[in-house]
Amino acid sequence: MRKVLTILGLAVCTPALFARDTALLRNGFSISHDHRQQIGVTTRLFLSASDEQYVDVPTENIADIQKDEPAAPAAAPEPAISVSSTSTAPIANAADIDSLVEKAARENQLDSDFIRAVIRTESGGNAHALSAKGAQGLMQLMPRTAQGLGVHNSFDAGENIGAGTSYLRSLLARYHNDPIRALAAYNAGALRVQQYGGVPPYHETRAYVARVMRDYNRRKVAQGKSAAKSKKTAPLSAASHPPSGA
User: Fold this and answer.
1) pTM, whole model, 2 decimals?
2) DSSP secondary-structure letter at 141?
3) Which of its termini does the chain have fewer beta carbons within 10 Å around, N or C?
4) Are the C-beta atoms of 3 and 28 separated by less than 8 Å?
5) What domains can you pick out in the chain, each with its CATH number?
6) Which residues have a catalytic role annotated?
7) Of 62-66, 140-144, 162-166, minimum mean pLDDT range
8) How many angstroms separate the CA atoms of 182 and 237, rounded?
């Protein structure tokens, strides 16, 4: 079963280093937070003691709230990773990429739109993207990561999406289906997430997580509107073709 996460708003920061709560969502994802507030039919989950960084989640999507274990003390910070840049190579065929995304989503039990949001943020859909740090392909795999995942050619769309999605799935499992921490680890590395007990205080990483979630939410909102429109127009279509004998 695919995991689908619908979050209405997002801002990211470094979590505080003390006991926190985890919101367990009905779709299998979870979000660690400092405190929360009920706002109508939405629950606002604050990612730190500050009220400026938060995630809004429909209350009905929250199955339970559990206590987190205290986070380990943070190590000395390292310089932020520079923002990825892409090459000017031609963008791969969108239809082929979409088919590969659907295949990887099925194999890894992930929402295909979550993968698409990562690809859009990482490379803009350019299968030959190469960052200044050496990250390659659609999901911007670093050479060492790609090698560990058994990738022979990171610029091959199928290999890149398959390995990148598998890696993303492993990060979600590691962080108990917390997409924010998983994305932070995908961008800055799992070691940095461990050091800071959550999203590192790097501008690039915070912006990266926000961009992915914003794109993902945009897709889900658009799908919801389309589904609602279809339901409204369905009776009109049926009325235009009454059953025989009417």
Assistant:
1) 0.66
2) B
3) C
4) yes
5) 94-174 (1.10.530.10)
6) 122
7) 62-66
8) 44
